[in-house]
Amino acid sequence: MEMLRARxxxxxxxxxxxxxxxxxxxxxNLAAFTNRSGLRERYLNMPSNVSMSPSPTEPGDExxxxxxxxxxxTGNYTNHPFVWAGSEWAAVTSxxxxxxxxxxxxxxxxxxxxxxxxxxxxxxVSIFAPGSDYAVAAAMVSYLRRCFxxxxxxxxxxxxxxxxxxxxxxxxxxxxxxxxxEPEEANKALMGLRDKMEPKERRYPQNxxxxxxxxxxxxxxxxxxxxxxxxxxxxxxxxxxxxDTTKASATCWKCAYVIPVYELQDSVAYLPNDKMDLLRLIxxxxxxxxxxxxxxxxQGNSKLENWEVEPINASATEYRVxxxxxxxxxxxxxxxxxxxxxxxxxxxxxxxxxxxSSQVYELHRRGYKFQVLxxxxxxxxxxxxxxxxxxxxxxxxxxxKVRYQMFKRELHAQLGLQMPTQSKGAPLRQKLTSLLxxxxxxxxxxxxxxxxxxxxxxxxxxx
Length: 463
Prior knowledge:
The structure is a single chain. By secondary structure, the chain is an alpha/beta fold. It has helices spanning 2-32, 89-95, 111-118, 133-147, 149-154, 183-190, 206-215, 235-243, 275-283, 297-300, 357-365, 391-415, 428-441; strands at residues 49-52, 70-71, 77-84, 98-105, 123-128, 155-162, 176-179, 221-224, 229-230, 255-259, 261-264, 287-289, 320-325, 335-339, 369-374, 378-381. The strands form three sheets. It has a ten-stranded mixed sheet, sandwiched between helices.
C-alpha cells in the first residue's frame, strides 16, 4: 500500500509539472505573437477595430509646423521628410537592394495597405496634404500603422503642402471606430475630417512628390510607381535576388530595367500571382497593356508582344533580362527600376502631362540602356478610358507641353546636342480657350477608384 501511495503521489506531481509547463508555453507563444505596441501580428492576429480621433498625429507627437519644412526651388511647396518613419527603416533598407517609392493624395492612402501586403521591402510614400488635408493624412497614417504591422515597420511617410496652405487640424471633432479589415472604408470615413470650406488644390506636384519619396530611400535602386499600381507577391525578394546576381552587380549604372504594366478588367476576381496567371487573363481578354486604348505610346516602345510569351521554365520565379529595347519613341512612359545615380524627375511639371516621359527622354539622351525584365510586372485595376477625364486635365497637359519644349532645349544645351525641333500644333491660348468653353458646357466628371486587396478575392465579384 505504501508503495502504491508513493507511486500515485509521484504521478500527481508529474501531472502538475506538465500542466505548469503547458501554461508557461501558452504565455510565451502569446508574447511572441504580440508586438511592442500591443497590436497583434499581421495575418495572424490583426486587430479587428481601432478608435480614431482627429488628433494631429500618433500619441506623443506634436502638430506638424511649416516652419520646420524644406521649401522647394520654386518657393511654392514645403516638404517634410519622415513625418512618420518606419520603425525598422534602417534595417529593411540595408537588407534590400530596391525601394518602392510612390505618392498619393489623402483620399487614396488606403492603397498603402494593399501595396504593403504584397511588397515586403522598404516603401517610401509622399503625401500631398495642404491645409486640413493634413488632419486626414495624420489620422489615416495612424490607422494604417496601428492596423498593419508591416506598414508600421517598413513604410516611411513624408508630407508636401503648398506654402499658402500649411498644415492645420480638423474643424470637426469626431471619434471614428474603424475596421482594420476595410482600409478603403476607413479612408472614406476619415475624409470627414477635412474642412469643407477649403477649396481643393487642383495643381498636384507629381514629380516633386516622386523625388521626395526617392531621395528619402537609401537603397541602391528605386522602383517609382503610382499608388494604385500593385506588385505581385515576392517581387521585392525577386528584385533583390536579380540585382544581387553577377551580371547585375557588375555595376551597370546606366541600366534602366523596364517593368511591364497591365490593366485588369473589373470582372477579374483574383489578382495574378505570377506571369502565367497574367498571360491567361490576357488570352481571355481580361487584361491588356496599360493605357493601350487611352494612349498607346505609354507602353508602346516596351515591345510587350515580346514579353507576352510563356517562360522557358514556367515554374521558375527568378527575374532575368528578357530582351533589350534598342529603339526609342518619344513620349514613352515605362515604369523603371533605376539606380540611385539616375536623373530625378523634373519638378517644373505640375499636374498631368509629361511628368514621367520627360525623365525617360533624359535617360535616353544620357545613354541609358533599357532592358525588359521577365516575370516582373505591375497591375492596375480597371480598363482605362478617357470618358471621365476632366477638361482641367487636358488644360494641364497643354501647359506642360510648353514646359516640355523648354525642358528639351535646356537638356540639349547642357549635353551639347543639336537643338530639338519645335512640336507642331495649335497655339496654347487657342487650345485653352476651346477647352474652357467645353468645360462650361458639360458637368465635370470624376474618375472612380476601387480598392484591390492583393492576394485576396475582390469584393463584389461572383455574387
